[in-house]
Structure formats: structure tokens, C-alpha cells
Amino acid sequence: MNPENFSLSERIVSPSYVRQGSQARRGHEQLIRQLLEQGKCPEKGWSESTVELFLNELALMDSNNFLGNCGVGEREGRVASSLVARRHYRLIHGIGRSGDIAAVQPKAAGSSLLNKLTNSVVLDVLRLSGVRGAASCFVVPMATGMSLSLCFLTLRHRRPRARYIVWPRIDQKSCFKAMVTAGYEPVVVENVLEGDELRTDVAAVERQIQALGAESVLCVHSTTSCFAPRVPDRIEELATLCAKYDIPHIVNNAYGVQSSKCMHLIQQGARVGRVDAFVQSLDKNFMVPVGGAIIAGFDEAFIQEISQMYPGRASASPSLDVLITLLGLGAGGYKRLLAERKEMYSFLSQELGSLAAAHGERVLHTPHNPISLAMSLDGLRGDGDNKAVTQLGSMLFTRQVSGARVIPLGKEQTLGGHTFRGFMSHSEAYPVPYLNAAAAVGVTRDDVVLCVKRLDRCLKRDNEHLAKGCILLIYVASTIGLNPVSSPTIHPHVALGLSQKQSFPPYCCTVVF
């Protein structure tokens, strides 16, 4: 409805009523105008009606929605299912052109505007989240691993003699495969154990650069967000090292946007040294469907170079999803989610600590990891047998506890020709098995309470089974004339049985397994 149509409406309905409707319409349009003028995430979230009005207006600017359009090309925004068309708000043309994912499409002005605005709003949110020096970014319809590959492939043209990527170890398959897929050989640098934490061995990274030769190294590939007891890499020191040897630095910031500590590390790295690009997941940071990532950096020309490396047009779905989400939340709403996440981290740490103490375990001390926590599982460790540890993971999954990771000792995994010893623990020989839980954005108090409650039940059940197994072995030993007494120490699983007033032979409490 434009002013002329509102004026004509006054002939049909009372002018006072029409003027009231017109004023309401102008309220929606004012919000849209501010978005177009500023290109920033609104402080206060929009209503769904404003978001839908905006998207419908954008869709009407695409040629597939023109009333008199006659399309005779191979790609004309044709959709067989009306359900699919509605799912995408009839924004069918996607984003970019064959030469650049950020380019404008002549026959899809609405989709192109959607793309530009999404990148602008997301850049604003990255700055609000702590990387204030970010110069440019774009949303790419690929998850984090493939987005990292795109960054590596872009660097190929700048460093044609390079063969290696130096990578402080993190046991996550997609970031390793991202390097292999791009055609490079990962040089894995083992972490160092400092207390309970696994931290970057910066000296070892420098030794590898010197041994390989700086020209042979495509980049240093570092990590912020990760599973405890691994903690974020020493980004500032690595950035300084990259500047010293003139080597690019790509940061895997998969779910680091939600952490002010991770974002601060990136900002400081760029300030004191070199950070060429940092990549983050859309679903992990903004609670949208899987399939999108943000590639950002401090040099607008380099980020544009990466966008031009993307072959062909791209799906607009990730851009549409994150724009709808951020317009609905507003900057204030997103900042509230981040504040709530910090509170849940403290609550999860407290609840896990109480649970661990009740079972003779402990929460590993990992103060440099702002998202993930780890609890030891020493009581489930057999004599070289991980069965009880891995069984706990299965028990949790069947009880609908998702996201918790149970890490046994000594597992081996071969990826791209490289064998990782102690795989999943980020170390060849981490001293204890453990369980991971993360306080990621969107986690609720109920999630934490239910997780801890179900974990408690699983641990009790495991301990009861182990205690009964201990008693059975003692009983069998005694019946064949063997002396089961070897120490005055009470095994924790037997002690659990005694505390529950189970009936055991009197010599049970003297046996150690």
C-alpha cells in the first residue's frame, strides 16, 4: 500500500480508520528504512510481521515474481512446489554470480539486497561481540570445514610454493580434513600439558616453521573454541610469530562468537601481529539450521578475494536464516543470549563439580576454556579397558543426553595418512579419561539440571555393576582357596556397595583392584 492507495481507500472506509492503518504501516517502514540507511543490527528486535513484510517486499524485486515476466533461460527461479516457494519466501535466485558470491544479480535485485544486508548486519554483530577491528565478512552456504578450505585455496595463489599448514593439534575431523581437501599436508604440533589444560606449544610451532622454511608454509591454522581440557590457542603469540615470518594466519573460530574471550583473542591477535581470516559457524553461534558459516577478516581486499574464489552462485538459505534471526532478536536480544550463556557456564561448572565430588571424581581445572568443561572418569578406568567409559557414553545417549562426549584413553584414529594417538583427547597421552559438556548459546537451566540428574543415575548404575563384579571375583577366589586379601584399602566401587548396605562377605573391604 502506497500513499495513493491509502488515499483511495478513504473513499471506501472511514478516513480516520485508514489514517490509523497508514500510520501503523509507516511504523514498519521506518524500521526498514533504518536498516537500509545504517546496515546494522537493530537494537530492539523486529516483530515477525515486520520481518515478513520486509522479505515479501524483497521477493517482489526478483524477476521470478514479476507479474509479466517471461523467462526463457535455464535458470529463471522456477519452483515446482508451492511449499518450497513459501519456505524460501519466494527468494529463489540465490546469491552471487558465477564469478563472485558477493556480486549483484541483475534479475534478482531483492535477493542481492538480502545478501548485502545480511553481510552488513553480521559484520555489525561480530564487532559488537568483541572483534571491533573486523573490516569485512560474508556469509557462505558451507559449514566451517569447507569454509576453511576456501580460505586455504585462496592463499594458494599468494603462496604458490607452499606445501604445508602448521596446525596446533585439536581432535576434530573437519578442520583436519579441510586442510587435506585443499591439497595441503598438515603439520601437527602436539599440545603441552599445563596442569589439567592442553595449551599451544608456541616454541614447537616456530621450530616447525624454521625446519620447513617459511615459503613452504601456507599458513598457521589456529583454533579458539574447543572441547576442554584443550583450551583456545595462544592466538596473540601465534599472530606475532606469523608477522615475524610473514606467514598467513587463519583462525578456526567455529563457535567462538558467543564467547567474549575468544573474540578478544582474535582482536588482540590482529592488533599485535597477523590474523588474515577467522571462520565461524552460523548454527553454533546464532541457532539457525546447519549449513552456513561466516568468513571474516581485517583486510577487506583479502576477504573479497576469498568470496571471488567461490565457484558459481550459492544458496541464499543460510543468509536468509541468519538475517531473520538477527532482525528478530535485535542486538539487545543477542547480547542477552550471550550473557545468559555465561551464567549457564557457571551453573554447569557448579553442578558438575557437586556431581563429581559425590562420585569421587573432579572437574578438570581449565580456566582458559570459556565454553566447555570436563569431568574426570577415573573411577571407570579399568586395567587398560575402556569398556566402562565408552558404555557411559552409550547410556547417556540412550537417555536422551545429547552433546556430552565421553573420552576414553588410548584410542587411535588415522586421518589423511596421519595417525592420532589418544584421539579425541587432543593429546597422545592425556592422564585421565573424562566427560565433556558445553555451556553453548541457547543452553537452559533445565538442560543442565536434567543432564546432571541423568549422568548421576548412569554413574551410580555403572558403579553398582562394577562393585558387584568385584564381589563376584572375591567370592570365586575364596571358594577355590585363594586369599583375596591384598591391602587394607577399600575400592571405591566396593565402598559404594557398602554405603548402600548391600550384603557382602566381610573381607570385601580389604581388596584392591
Automatic annotation (TrEMBL):
What are the subcellular locations of this protein? Cytoplasm
User: What are the record's GO terms for cellular component?
Assistant: cytoplasm
UniProt-annotated binding residues for pyridoxal 5'-phosphate: 75
Pfam families given in the database record: SepSecS
Q: Give the main location.
A: cytoplasm
Keyword terms of this UniProt record: Cytoplasm, Protein biosynthesis, Pyridoxal phosphate, RNA-binding, Selenium, Transferase, tRNA-binding
Return the annotated site residues (May act as a substrate filter by repelling compounds with a negatively charged alpha-carboxylate). 74
User: Which positions in this protein are listed as binding tRNA?
Assistant: 271, 399
**GO biological process annotation, one example:** conversion of seryl-tRNAsec to selenocys-tRNAsec
Catalyzed reactions per annotation: O-phospho-L-seryl-tRNA(Sec) + selenophosphate + H2O = L-selenocysteinyl-tRNA(Sec) + 2 phosphate
Pathway per its UniProt entry is:
Aminoacyl-tRNA biosynthesis; selenocysteinyl-tRNA(Sec) biosynthesis; selenocysteinyl-tRNA(Sec) from L-seryl-tRNA(Sec) (archaeal/eukaryal route): step 2/2
Q: Is the keyword Isomerase in the record?
A: no
What EC number(s) would the UniProt record show? 2.9.1.2
The record lists substrate as bound by: 97-98, 105, 313
Residues with PTM N6-(pyridoxal phosphate)lysine: 284
Name the coenzymes or cofactors required.
Answer: pyridoxal 5'-phosphate
Q: Name one GO molecular function term.
A: O-phosphoseryl-tRNA(Sec) selenium transferase activity
Similarity section: Belongs to the SepSecS family.
* Record note on quaternary structure: Homotetramer formed by a catalytic dimer and a non-catalytic dimer serving as a binding platform that orients tRNASec for catalysis. Each tetramer binds the CCA ends of two tRNAs which point to the active sites of the catalytic dimer.
Its annotated function is as follows: Converts O-phosphoseryl-tRNA(Sec) to selenocysteinyl-tRNA(Sec) required for selenoprotein biosynthesis.
Question: Which named protein is this?
Answer: O-phosphoseryl-tRNA(Sec) selenium transferase
